[in-house]
Amino acid sequence: MKLLKxxxxxxLVACLATALPAFAADTITKASFGKTNDGTPVSIYTxxxxxxxxxxxxxxxxxxxxxxxxxxxxxxxxxxxxxxNPQEYLKESPYFGALIGRCGNRIAKGTFKIDGVTYHVPVxxxxxxxxxxxxxxxxxxxxxxxxxxxxxxSLQLGLLSKDGDQGxxxxxxATVVYTLTDANALQISYTATTDxxxxxxxxxxxxxxxxxxxxxxxxxxxxxxxxxxxxxxxKTLIPTGKLMRVAGTPFDFRKPTxxxxxxxxxNQQIQYGPGYDHNxxxxxxxxGSMLAVxxxxxxxxxxxxxxxxxxxxxxxxxxxxxxxIVGRGGKPYVRRGAIALETQHFPDSVNHPQFPxxxxxxxxxxxxxxxxxxxxxx
Length: 378
What we know:
With 378 residues, the protein is mainly beta. It has 3 helices and 29 strands. The strands form 7 sheets. Strands 1, 12, 13, 14, 15, 19, 22, 24, 25 and 29 form a 10-stranded antiparallel beta sheet that branches.
């Protein structure tokens, strides 16, 4: 929990703990969330902190189904895109709220080598593999253990991905812990071990709309990303292996900038998106947690600060939402109706030795922590 001490946020953000009346205690409850297509029962857990902030998380895909935080008028509202049951997620979800593994983001042509051995994983995104393949961690039922912890409430999820799963080598044991803290942050801790050298790059793919779930686009949201570079991509969204300075481009979010200001640019990288779907190289100064992204919604006053110990973050603007998916609240999810902020190692790192390595070996422990902290600007 030491990372929570870093979460000071923006100077103009008021801590929600003082903005809302205190509830009696942190709580976690369990309910049915239906069944998967093969009849496996699925549960949904409701985590409520001492301030009334509430997250609903399913053991199916580790999905953040909803997350209610207050606006500047102290009115609670859901800020993530989500669906009603596992069947809807299996049928049409573009990874709404899900845990992603074994390998977040893309692997070129679904092929990579480890120690001279070539492996093939499913191609499910044009010519490339995306987010772990056809049946990634987002489509699995995880073992769940609820816990009330000091200054918050947690849900621990565990999964064994067997040797050969989706073509990946090694038995990978993954543990993910969601903690909703009384500092009004949702912390995600990822841990994994393997018995054979493999690829591991875990993340979460929540779609955020600080205006409220299904409430139009996020183009008016103002964002700052602590990054001087991106990893530019080819037309299939695979990194070229080079770094590109953001200065003088539509990717310069080093100062707070409206997301929609330059999203229609003729810049080739934007056209490849189409929109933002790129890895930002964070300006790290050593190891440990850093404030990577700040997002502010002028309409509601909500603020989201993202802290991570990862080297990159994928910024995606819901470019392929088109209104055909109707969310849990009955509203269509329109194009650019949310953003994803996936903390990560770089896409296709396994095929780019100059990038931070995503190879996990026996005896090593993969461990990373990301925190999404919520506040209000009056």
